[in-house]
Amino acid sequence: MHHGVASGINQKHAATQLTVLFDRVVGNSEADSKHHGGLDRVLHHFPREHYGQYRRWDLMSSFRDAPSMGENISTVGLNEAQVNIGDIVQIGDVTLQVTQPRSPCFKLNVQFEHPKFALAMQESRMCGWFYRVLSEGDIKPSDSIYLIERKTDISVAQAMQIYFLPEFNAEQYQVLLACEGLAQSWVESLQRRLAQQSIEDWAMRLYGKAS
């Protein structure tokens, strides 16, 4: 429990090695398995330099650094504009595929003691991204990241922008749906929007309460 909210975000600590399986990182767990984790979100990769920007925006009540976002991988020099949905990458022994940006939720507001942190992440698109695991193995801090194959021309930042457009946009949703490797939960969400011709209410996710 963290300020009355069930969360595994503060269990993270610097590690000398990540042992990555198809369905989990050994030693890692989620407090809410419905909205976190799963085969399309085994690892969360977050650019460390974003911490500095969030601090400059006064969105953190105190100095925080990696892995306070709950990320599994922290790097410098790689961001959401450079990584595309469907990218297949090699890190150490592990082969991964980029599936989706992080969808920020109200637990970030609790973590950083700011009521609009999740909204700021959604609007800035400084969210990091998730991977599914294509081959198991170990990742060490010294390992390099190699792009093996690029499947789409839609970046993580573009995917974030399309998914969180303030107005319903069927044409843009179809562009995102065409992305090979897109997380199944995002596929289903976009299909629901197209069927209902409307966007779901984001208030519960962003603020922990209905609008």
TrEMBL record:
Top-level division of the source organism's lineage: Bacteria
TM region(s), chain numbering: none
Protein's recorded name: Molybdenum cofactor sulfurase
MOSC domain segment(s): 18-148
Originating organism: Shewanella inventionis
Coiled-coil segments: none
